[in-house]
Every structure is written in C-alpha cells, then in structure tokens.
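hiii so um. not sure if this is the right channel but i have a protein structure encoded as tokens and i wanna go backwards to a sequence. like what aa goes where. can anyone help
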C-alpha cells in the first residue's frame, strides 16, 4: 500500500530565462513501485526522509539507500531504484531544469557521478519541497517564479544537509575565512594547515565549490567593499587592510571582479556611520526597536 501526490508544471520561455524552473513536485510514502530502468532529460532531486531501499547503477552495481538520503537523477544517466517492499520509504521530490544547472554542477551542488548521497538531516530539504507543494495549489499566479526560486533554495538546503560536509563549512574553510586578509599566498595557507597546495585545493573545492584563490578573493573583496562604504580610508590603506601591499594591483583586481574601480564603488555606496558599522548580524526574528522621535 502506498500514497502518492504530485503536480507538474509547464513554465514559459521567460521563466526559463530566470535560470532554473520547477517542472514538478511530489510527496509519496509506503511500499512504492520500482522506478525504471529509465533515462530523463531533466533533473530530479528525490529526498528520502525515512525508510530504506536500493539504487542500481548503469553498470549493474547495487547501492543500499538508507534514510536520510538524496537520490540525484540527472539528464542522460540511466537509473533504476526502489524502496524495500517490506518497509517502503517516505520521499519528496522536485523536478527541475534550466541553464543554471550547469553552474550548480560546476560548483558541486549537483553531482551527476554520485547519484546516492547520504544526508545528515532531511528536515531542511523536505521543508523546501513542502513550500513548493504549497505553491503548487491551483490558481497561484506566482507559481512559476515562486517554485523556480524555491529550487535554488532546495539546492542550497541539499548542499548544507550532506552528511560528508559540515553545514557551515569545515575547520579549514573557517580558518581561511578568519585569515583571508593576511598577506599570505595559497601555498602559505596550505602550509599553515599542514597541507600541500593540491590538498588545500581539493578541500576547498569540496567544501565551497571553488578554488582557494577565489574563496579568499571573495572574502577580501567583500571586506574591501565594507571599508570603502563605511570609512574614509584611502584606497591604498584599504588594499593593505585586505592583504594587498600593491594598491595599483588591488585596484585592477577590484575593477576586474567588481566591474568598477574602488573610488567609483565608494562614490556610489559610501555610508558614513559614527563609530563604524556593527559586526553583529541582526536577528530578523527579533529586530531592534527604534524609538519614534518627537519634534520639540
């Protein structure tokens, strides 16, 4: 005995230009029928919340699936899977496509070569699938955009829930973020962690989906933007604060990555704040109370 609910959508050309579109969503539980063998031309993320089953690879290998787990069904890859007939499983799935899937694959959020991914907790991904399901109600005028935006969120939630990765980054990534503005090369950072540059590249790409150079650069430029927007420090001083002794090189790098020189960014974004900006991130669930001012 099993129970199935699903909806399918047909987004228009304009929605596809948003990068990702949701083509369908479903919630199922029980002793579900076997799926496949089949091959799709779109992506499906199947989140197994409870239960167990199996997945058969194109070469005939069989992998045990134990919840919580993710099944990646990617275009052009034959797949065949199902729950154990005696126990069944509880699954939610989202069907999606779009040009942004290429970038998410490059970043490691979608893994065509790893169809079975253990999760530490399926709560986050299942919550997103639940929101897609609620958005799928008949007559929702925001359906295509709302569900497409949720697919982006789902990919992030799945990345965060992977059992082989710490949800907020491993110790190496945290240390790199802490020391990003020190005038150190990638080789210097690797040595500080007792790693070769190649080992550091592997660790950072696995955890952040990019190279150590790009990871450090993103943090440095973010800090540089804050200093340009909130202080009157000269550009040369900003460059030194974020790890660059050569202000000309910093300006060229900033311009190439940001799309404008530091001085222009400051002209657009400068916000003088007495005492500087706060480093404490506000809690959106507990915003500060602003007392009304009264004219005297």
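sure thing!! here u go:
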């Amino acid at each position: 005995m099993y129970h199935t609910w699903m909806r399918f959508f047909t987004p228009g050309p304009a929605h596809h230009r948003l990068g990702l579109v949701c083509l369908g969503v479903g919630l199922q539980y029980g002793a579900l029928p076997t799926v496949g063998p089949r091959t799709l031309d779109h992506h499906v993320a199947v989140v197994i919340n409870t239960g167990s089953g199996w997945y058969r690879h194109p070469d005939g290998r069989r992998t045990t699936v134990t919840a919580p787990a993710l099944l990646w069904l990617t275009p052009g890859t034959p797949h065949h899977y199902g729950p154990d007939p005696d126990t069944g499983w509880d699954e939610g799935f989202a069907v999606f496509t779009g040009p942004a899937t290429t970038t998410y694959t490059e970043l490691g959020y979608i893994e065509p070569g790893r169809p079975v991914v253990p999760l530490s907790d399926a709560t986050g991904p299942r919550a997103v699938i639940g929101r897609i399901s609620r958005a799928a109600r008949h007559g929702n005028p925001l359906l295509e955009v709302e569900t497409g935006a949720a697919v982006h969120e789902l990919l992030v939630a799945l990345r965060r829930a992977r059992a082989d990765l710490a949800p907020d980054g491993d110790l190496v990534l945290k240390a790199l973020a802490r020391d990003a503005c020190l005038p150190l090369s990638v080789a210097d950072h690797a040595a500080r962690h007792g790693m070769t540059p190649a080992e550091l590249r592997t660790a950072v790409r696995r955890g952040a989906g990019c190279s150590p150079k790009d990871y450090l650069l993103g943090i440095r430029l973010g800090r540089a933007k804050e200093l340009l927007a909130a202080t009157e420090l000269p550009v040369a001083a900003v460059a030194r604060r974020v790890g660059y002794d050569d202000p000309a090189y910093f300006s060229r790098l900033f311009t190439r990555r940001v799309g404008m020189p530091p001085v222009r960014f400051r002209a657009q974004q400068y916000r003088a704040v007495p005492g500087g900006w706060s480093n404490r991130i506000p809690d959106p669930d507990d915003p500060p109370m602003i007392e009304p001012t009264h004219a005297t």
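oh and The chain has a mean pLDDT of 89.
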